[in-house]
């Protein structure tokens, strides 16, 4: 079952989304549990008060009070990084700004139910695949099982006492690991991971923006890009973003 937050300041539009999800559930056999929010503030409050998280946020962009993008930004700042976003809007010019909060899909109103169903099924497949994407990391705590989606970056860490020490940053914790960056780069190649420096491997899904010869990740950390890798890294990020919205 997938939990869906429908956030729109117009009740008829919320009902439209709920109806499309009910129709899709009947056709696909996938269960959706929906909860409606009349404002971005209400959705942020849900998380602030310890409410159960959602898999997907369906957010209207043009709302009174917090806009959909402002709502998503506040939730990302609360480290809600695994939820996927579908933005609904009447104006295409918001598309570029929406990438700033790691958007899965951007749909123009009026939303075609078939297009909505197609994108929602794609998201369901994404969550199914994510559950299978794990890596076992050797650490000071023993062997850790980490989901690819939770890993932000793996860095070589300087240590006078530990050989091949690694710093593994996830959406929830930072772990001390053991091994070679090149070994993890090989194990994770062909997906969302890219070695941007001889001592840094990043998850492209968590790249927030570029700042000169550095990348800013979803948790705010800045990591260096190798001088010879700048164009490769920017091209890889662009391809990854395009693939996510197709």
TrEMBL record:
Chain positions with 4-aspartylphosphate modification: 60
Pfam families from the UniProt entry: LytTR, Response_reg
HTH LytTR-type domain location: 135-239
Protein keywords: Phosphoprotein
Alphabetical list of InterPro entries matching this protein: CheY-like_superfamily, LytR-like, LytTR_DNA-bd_dom, Sig_transdc_resp-reg_receiver
PROSITE patterns, A to Z: HTH_LYTTR, RESPONSE_REGULATORY
Residue ranges constituting the Response regulatory domain according to the UniProt record: 3-124
Entries under PANTHER family matching the protein: STAGE 0 SPORULATION PROTEIN A HOMOLOG, TRANSCRIPTIONAL REGULATOR-RELATED
Protein name from the UniProt record: LytR/AlgR family response regulator transcription factor
């Amino acid at each position: 079952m997938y939990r869906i937050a429908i956030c729109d300041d117009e009740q008829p539009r919320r009902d439209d989304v709920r109806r499309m999800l009910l129709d899709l559930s009947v056709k696909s056999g996938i269960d959706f549990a929906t909860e409606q929010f009349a404002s971005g503030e209400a959705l942020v409050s849900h998380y602030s008060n310890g409410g159960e998280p959602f898999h997907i946020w369906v957010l209207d962009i043009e709302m009174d009070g917090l806009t959909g993008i402002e709502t998503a930004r506040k939730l990302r700042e609360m480290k809600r990084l695994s939820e996927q976003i579908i933005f609904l809007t009447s104006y295409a010019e918001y598309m570029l700004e929406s990438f700033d909060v790691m958007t899965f899909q951007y749909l123009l109103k009026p939303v075609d139910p078939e297009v909505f169903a197609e994108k929602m099924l794609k998201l369901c497949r994404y969550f199914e695949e994510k559950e299978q994407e794990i890596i076992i990391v050797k650490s000071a705590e023993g062997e850790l099982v980490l989901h690819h989606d939770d890993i932000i970056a793996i860095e070589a860490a300087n240590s006078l006492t530990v050989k091949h020490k690694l710093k593994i940053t996830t959406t929830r914790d930072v772990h001390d690991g053991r091994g070679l960056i090149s070994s993890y780069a090989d194990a994770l190649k062909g997906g969302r991971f890219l070695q941007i420096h001889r001592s840094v491997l990043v998850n492209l899904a968590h790249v927030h923006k570029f700042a000169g010869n550095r990348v800013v990740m979803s948790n705010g950390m800045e990591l260096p890009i190798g001088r010879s890798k700048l164009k490769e890294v920017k091209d890889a990020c662009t391809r990854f973003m395009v693939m996510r919205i197709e």
